[in-house]
Amino acid sequence: MSTLALKGPQWVTFRQHRRALWWSLALAACAMAVLVASRWWSDGAVDALRAAGCPADEPTSSCFQLQNDYIDDRWFARHLVEYTALAMLVLPALLGAFVAGPMLAREMESGTYKLAWTQSVSPARWLAAKVAVPVALTLTVVPLLSLVFHWSWSTGPADDFPTYWYEPTVFVSFGIVPVAHALLGLALGTAVGILVRRTVVAMGLAAVVIGAALAVLSRLREDLWPVQTLTGAGLSAENHAWPLDRGMLTASGERVLRQDCFTAQPDTVERCMTDRGGVTGFLDVHPASHYWPLQLVETGICLALAALAVLAAFRVLRARHP
C-alpha cells in the first residue's frame, strides 16, 4: 500500500496504524508462501516416487519406504492447506476485532478523535476514512489470497487425500465468499467499535458477534439454494456432490430419514426405514454445479448485512455527535 495514494484522513489513519497494516500484509504473504510450499512439497513427493520408478497406488516391497515417505509428504502438504483454510475462516473476526478496538474504540475511549474533528474533518468523514483504509487492504489482499488458495487446493494433494469444496473451511477460502466475509467482519467491527467505545471490550465483542454471524451463515448454507433429490437404490454422492439428507420415501411421498432410524435402531437402520413405510431410497445433494449459486447468494447476504452494519455505525455516530 503506497502512502502516495492516500490523502487527508486516510493518510492519517494509515500513519497511525501502519505497523498493524504492514503486519497484516506480512501475515498474508506468509499464508501465500505456505500455500506455495504445500504445492512444492506435494510435487516433490510425486517427483521422488517417479524418479525411483515406484507406483503410487500399488504397494511393492522394494518401494515400501519410498511409498510411505510419499504418503507422509502428501499428508503434510494437505495439512498445510487445511491450516491455511482455518486461518481464512477466522480472518473476518480478526479484521473486525482490529477495526472495532485499536482503530475506533481506542480513539473514542482516549478522546483523540476530537483532534481530527477540529481540523475541518467531520465525524462522518473521519469514520469513512477509518473504514476505507482496511477495506482497501482487504479488497487488495483477500482476493489474491483466495486465488492462491484455490490454485494450491485444486492442483495439489487434494487429488490423493481429498478435501471437498463444500467443507466449511474450504468453502470460505476461495471464490468470492472470503471477500464478502472479510467485508462483513469489517462492517460489524465498525458498528461494535462505535457502539462500545472501549478498546478491549470492543475487540472481544466484535469477535463474538462476527463469529456468531458466520456460524449462522454456515448453518444455513445448505438451504441457500434448492437441493437436488436423487431417488432409487444404492444412492451415493458422485462427482464431488455435497450429500445432505438421506433416507427412504413412503408410497405417499413422505420422508423417513436415515438419521432418525440410526438414532432409534442403529443396528437395523434399513429395516427401521422399511418398517416405517419406506419403499425407495432418496438422497438430497448439492452437485458441484451449485457451488457458484451458493457463493453468490451467501455473498449477497453478507454484503447486505455489511451495508446495514455500516449504516447503523454512521447513524449512531451522528446521533452522539451531531
Could you walk me through the main structural features you see in this protein, from its secondary elements to its overall organization?
Helices cover 68% and strands 8% of the residues. The chain has 11 helices and 4 strands. A 4-stranded antiparallel beta sheet has the order 1-4-2-3. The protein has 2 domains: 3-224 and 290-320, no CATH class; 242-286, no CATH class. The radius of gyration is 25 Å and the shape is flat. The two termini are 33 Å apart. It has helices at residues 8-16, 18-51, 64-110, 113-117, 123-155, 168-171, 177-196, 199-220, 258-264, 269-275, 291-320; strands spanning 228-231, 242-250, 255-257, 278-286. With 322 residues, the chain is an alpha+beta fold.
Helix content: 55-70%
Q: Summarize model confidence as the mean pLDDT.
A: 85
Structural class: alpha+beta
From the alpha carbons, calculate the radius of gyration and give it in angstroms.
Answer: 25 Å
Spatial arrangement of strands, main beta sheet? 1-4-2-3
Portion in strands: 5-15%
| Broad shape | flat
Major beta sheet summary? 4 strands, antiparallel
Number of helices: 11
Instruction: Please report the total strand number as a whole number.
Output: 4
Distance between the termini: 33 Å
